[in-house]
Amino acid sequence: MTGAPGAPDPTGYDPDRIKCVVWDLDGTLWDEIAVETPTDELPVPRAEMLAAIDALAARGVLSSLASRSAPAVLDRMDAVPEVRERFLAPQVSWQDKSESLRRIAKDLGIAVEALVLVDDSPYERAEVEALLPGVRTLGPGEVPALLAAFEDREVTPESRERVSRYRTEETRRAEGERFQGTREEFLRWCDMRLTVGPAALDEVPRALELAARTHRLNSSGLTPDRLRALAAADGHELYTARMSDRFGEYGVIGAALVDRTAPGSWSVPLLALSCRVAGRGAAAAFLFWLMERAREAGAGEFRVTLRPTDANLEMRILLRQAGLRRTDDDLDDGAVLSRSLDGGDLPKPPAWLHVSLRKDADA
């Protein structure tokens, strides 16, 4: 196993696509059936399962719960914070597991296909496989193979902080639900700030991770190995974007590779942003900043490589809204979009998002 981002894994799991493991309770996280215990105390979790959850969290993989049981079981878990805090967006109810997984994906803002279900029941696994064919399911005995897929994978600072940042996101979402005002007013209140600049050396691994793991806001699906090679080539520059708000730091949430080898043109073979910032204007702000930067550098044309997928509709809409249109330079599996930078006003970032050049970046 090489451990390189994007490399095939002999275990059969693709670590770049797995963002959250969803755990069943009875017979999986613990041996007993919680609703049948004679007291209000929870069954004792299996030590090996808690260790697996912690090992995944250390590599940036979230954990959630999907259990067909009484909702009161989740209330009882609140009394055991050392267990409860390991799980984000849990679903404990009598609904079908497939519906629970859909709700978890929606609450976390990730694709359903980025989930893996661990469940001891062949029936529950079959139900999910039938209704959500993109979700990988496995029994508790297969967890060691899942963990093996993450061995020797490079862990970025953002990966190590991902679970805590999703917990912050739960707080952010709860505040949004309580906020008395419009969505735009809430975003203004959040005091969202995007800082952009050439990638620092220690940010490159995160840029490679974004290339491999983001799908909704990814223009081309450029592989990490190809991104690394192009970023080191003459006439190319890698940019990153960091975001923060009143709740805390998001970390590096965007990466863009710029090709300046053609006179008078800036080409972007890859624009990728974390799904955690979807719907907050960060993708638009990053793109518009790049366009303005290109014009300031004397470029008369701005181009973006686009490879359409079932997942990146949001990115395709953004590129069109930015005035980019298809050129005749078709690719085997995509297209090149372009717009002129000569004259006229360029699109502006959303009013609620302050965008600036990082202080440590060249002006």
Descriptive account of the structure:
The radius of gyration is 22 Å and the shape is elongated. Strand 4, helix 5 and strand 5 form a beta-alpha-beta unit. Mean pLDDT is 91; it is low at 1-10. Helices cover 33% and strands 21% of the residues. The strands form 2 sheets. It has an 8-stranded mixed beta sheet with strand order 11-12-10-9-8-7-6-13, sandwiched between helices. A 5-stranded parallel beta sheet has the order 3-2-1-4-5, with helices on both faces. The chain has 12 helices and 13 strands. Helix 9 runs antiparallel to helix 10 (224-231). It has helices spanning 47-58, 72-77, 81-84, 97-108, 122-131, 143-148, 157-178, 183-189, 204-213, 224-231, 282-296, 313-321, and strands at 20-23, 62-68, 91-93, 115-118, 136-138, 192-198, 236-245, 248-259, 265-273, 301-306, 325-326, 335-340, 353-357. With 363 residues, the chain is of the alpha/beta class.
Concise account of the structure shown:
With 363 residues, the chain is an alpha/beta fold. It has helices spanning 47-58, 72-77, 81-84, 97-108, 122-131, 143-148, 157-178, 183-189, 204-213, 224-231, 282-296, 313-321, and strands spanning 20-23, 62-68, 91-93, 115-118, 136-138, 192-198, 236-245, 248-259, 265-273, 301-306, 325-326, 335-340, 353-357.
Characteristics of this structure?
single chain, alpha/beta, five-stranded parallel beta sheet, 21% strand, elongated, disordered N terminus
Query: DSSP helix count?
Result: 12
Strands of the largest sheet, in order across it? Answer: 11-12-10-9-8-7-6-13
Report strand %: 15-25%
User: Helical amount among residues, as a percent range?
Assistant: 25-40%
Largest sheet at a glance? 8 strands, mixed
What structural category characterises the helix and strand content? alpha/beta
What oligomeric assembly is this protein in?
single chain
The coarse silhouette is: elongated
Return the string of H and E elements: EHEHHEHEHEHHHEHHEEEHEHEEE
Average of the residue pLDDT scores? 91
Termini, distance in Å? 42 Å
